[in-house]
Amino acid sequence: MQNCTSPLRNGKEIAYYGENKSGIWRLPKDFGLLSERLGVMAYNPIKVANEFLRLAQVRQPAVQLTPLKLLKLVYIAHGWSLHFLHEPLVNEQAEAWQYGPVVPSLYRAVRSYKASPVNYPIVGDNDPRDLSEDAASLIEAVLDTYGSFSGVQLSNMTHMPNTPWSNTWHNLGRNSVIPNDEIAQHYAVLAARQNQN
User: Are 159 and 166 in contact (CB under 8 A)?
Assistant: First the structure.
């Protein structure tokens, strides 16, 4: 995979995590300002996935989200939430599965789609709360940043060496819980690298 850049809204550019000499993920430079506002409470992973699906449908052209891609987007959003908002985005811990980090209840909700795009909405969101403005903004920024990548590309990004998935897989074993503090530390490192460039 090569380093790719793509314009974001307001003409900002971002670099994507890949096998390149900088090896970082980037969100818009002003995205960190979210951390100065009130944080979010953790949500049902299906609620977060449904927001990705809702946003993907209104894009022109619409973005197709397969289960693999959706699982990785939710994990990535959770990681950035731990860093920028200092709170988990989802109320369930990710696990180190063969193809990268997975939130198990979300996997069970979408596995029947196999490699086909997931339909909106996914059934099973029993959380009556609406997403906070910060959570919704973060999800949109993650879709803007990572939505052009395939599920396989996102999977490759999230289980490279020295990622929380890799450390958990090799030190704790297959399907072990990936500690949120390790995810938060990883995204803090990515954000620090971004700020250096």
Answer: yes
| Omega before residue 7 within 30° of 0, cis | no
Q: Which two tokens mark 175?
A: 């399907």
Nearest to 194 by CA among 6, 10, 15: 15
pLDDT of the chain, 197 residues: tens digit per residue: 233 332 223 333 333 333 333 334 445 555 544 434 334 479 999 999 999 999 999 998 999 999 999 999 999 999 999 999 999 999 999 999 999 999 999 999 999 999 999 999 999 999 899 999 999 999 999 999 999 999 999 999 998 999 999 999 999 999 999 999 999 999 999 999 888 87
DSSP state of 130: P
Q: Taking every pair of C-alpha atoms in the chain, what is the biggest distance, in angstroms?
A: 44
Count of Cβ atoms closer than 10 Å to residue 61 Cβ: 5
